[in-house]
Write a structure and sequence with these properties.
MetI-like fold, about 230 residues
Length: about 230
Amino acid sequence: MPHWLQLMIDSLPTLLLAGLTFTIPLTLISFVLGLTLGLATAIARLFGPAPLVAVARFYVWIIRGTPLLVQLFVIFYGLPSIGILLDAFPAALIGFTLNIGAYSSEIIRAVISSVPRGQWEAAYSIGMTWRQAMTRTILPQAARVAVPPLSNTFISLVKDTSLAAAITVPELFQSAQRIVATTYEPLILYIEAALIYLVMSSVLSALQVRLEARFARYGGMLEANR
């Protein structure tokens, strides 16, 4: 068996374990928290009072205007200088959550704004409150439009978690770096890590297509019932 193939086989369990124990949990938790933060930020910008709108805009401006890697460094290496100490995983979780929250808020704000005003008026005409109109009428319609961009954001997040290696989170990419430090085979190990990311992204892309198709059928049923 070729040396490179044996090395990839030997290192595969370690890389997969790092992916299962750190990369995937970091991705899922960050995305759920970021999506929640993004929804709150979008609603604040669309319907909040002026001071809250200003805070939400400032948050989005800061996060979208600075690199994710710099944000992670500020949280993990910078905050200790003012007495805030965080372990690597929570620091990465906070960084990714804030980043996803800012970007997803723009997506959510756009799709909510795209829902025709008549849908609000129809909801109010049958006695719904603002909260009921939002949860029962507006958000279900907006979700159908938001699926593609939010799915792309999720897939990008899977790959972006490799940046957590820079703040010592032992995720998939840092595990590859550690093996490289002992085997001195960077090309083989980094290609293997890239292939694992490629497989995960490909699986998620396939799931995205199925999800979009399901929402498209749901949208068609809504149109047919009108």
